[in-house]
Amino acid sequence: MLYSELQCSEAIHKAVERMGFAEMTEVQEKTIPVMLAGRDVIAKAPTGTGKTCAFGIPVAEHIDPALKAPQAVILAPTRELAQQIAEELTGLTYFMPEVQVVCVYGGANMEKQAKRLAEGCQIVVATPGRLMDHYKHHNIDLDHVTQVVLDEADEMLNMGFYKDVKHIIGLMKARKSLSMFSATISREVMDIGWMYQKDAEEITVQPKITQYMLETSGRNKLSDLAQIIIGEGYKRVMVFCDTKFNTAALANQLARLGFSVDCLHGDLSQNERNRIMQNFRDGKLNVLVATDVAARGIDVSDVDAVINYDVPGDNEHYTHRIGRTGRAKKEGVSYLFYVPEEKKRVQELLRLTRNTDLCTPVHFDFNHEHIVVEKKQDSADRFQIKCYF
Q1: The pairing of beta strand 101-104 with beta strand 123-126
Q2: SS3 at position 350
């Protein structure tokens, strides 16, 4: 469906055209008409499928510009995701100058955020903890909020925000709709749906990801990883490890092999995280190694492949990991490494995440004897990396 066919205001049509969107993604086509009609939605869709526009357009359309008070609250689990949502909503309301979007999140100056809220806004994008802080300090009025959206609901509820989210929803007495977007439908997501949604429309969107699993060994993992990246010609890869130590160690090993690589883990400052992510988006890094916690809120649209270097301890982390590829209508690839003693765990993981039909064993003609790295400088003073196995 084309955006030009959508029954919405001229301001939205102009904003969508300005943002360069012409054709809707699957989640947008399924969600926007339902939310425009005022119905609740519970959508199972990974990040990168266009969820922000899917809920952003109906949210903007239902705003009363004359009322200078919050009318919609979008909750997100991380500051990075909250900032991304606010930026896109600001784009969607570009031709609605009277509609203001404010983003509040932890780790930033409370007074500046309070001042921005006091200036008047209709849409608030927030992390749950910081929204509660502003409410307790009487910086925000929730009496006129009619629309509530939970983005990456499973991540948010699993991070310990379950009670906060319930409390926030309960504060909004004028609420008319509650929509949730989640990569997985966890028990906590279902509980919120049962308690607060009315006849919600259930929407499911599956990313186009070819999934492979590969039996390996501790001594061969690094060689297997390097051969997959180079052999398949991947230019932008995310590799997931289960601990900070493994993340840093693997990044160092890949760097010694000549890969352009960096890592994300919980010990990094926000400035360091931002720098690394910007380098990854700009193509200055080919490989990003990360833990599950550090990767929350990452939004990169053109990741060629996701490699699960360590089997995730949490079943839902697998879905979130592979959801980093196959975004924005592109097809993606994921790999799951495991050692023989993890085979039963992997089978259980795939069964519980309903990926058994998609994940197929693959057999590469791997040579684990040695790795030789050759660097050759080209005319543009860039190094071409060749690994021989």
Answers
A1: parallel
A2: helix
DSSP state at residue 356: T
Report CA-CA distances (Å) from 243 to 138, 227, 248.
Answer: 40, 23, 9
- What secondary structure letter does DSSP report for 267? T
The C-alpha atoms of residue 179 and residue 70 are separated, in whole angstroms, by: 17
Please list, residue by residue across 132-169, b when 16 or more beta carbons sit within 10 angstroms of its beta carbon and e when fewer do.
Answer: bbbbeeebbebebbbbbbbbbbbbbbbbebbebbbebb
Is 336 within 8 Å of 311 (Cβ atoms)?
A: yes
**Structure pTM?**
0.71
pLDDT in tens, 304-345: 999 999 998 877 788 778 878 876 657 788 899 999 999 888
DSSP state of 83: H
CA 233 to CA 90: how far, in whole Å?
37
379, pLDDT greater than 70: no
The string of pLDDT tens digits covering residues 73-94 is: 999 998 888 999 999 999 999 9
Tokens standing for residue 12: 């939205």
User: Residue 70's closest CA among 187, 174, 203, 167?
Assistant: 174
The answer to whether residues 48 and 299 touch, using CB atoms and an 8 Å cutoff, is yes
**What is the C-alpha to C-alpha distance for residues 126 and 52, in angstroms, rounded to an integer?**
14
Establish how many alpha carbons lie within 13 A of residue 262's alpha carbon, considering only the half-sphere containing its beta carbon: 17
3-state secondary structure 92-151: HCCCCCCCCEEEECCCCCHHHHHHHHHCCCCEEEECHHHHHHHHHCCCCCCCCCCEEEEE
Q: 101's torsion region: left (phi>0), alpha (psi -120 to 50) or beta?
A: beta
Cβ-based neighbours of 362, under 8 Å, separated by 6 or more: 212, 213, 214
Q: Can you say how many angstroms the Cα of residue 261 is from the centroid of all Cα atoms in its chain? A: 21
Mean pLDDT of 141-150: 97
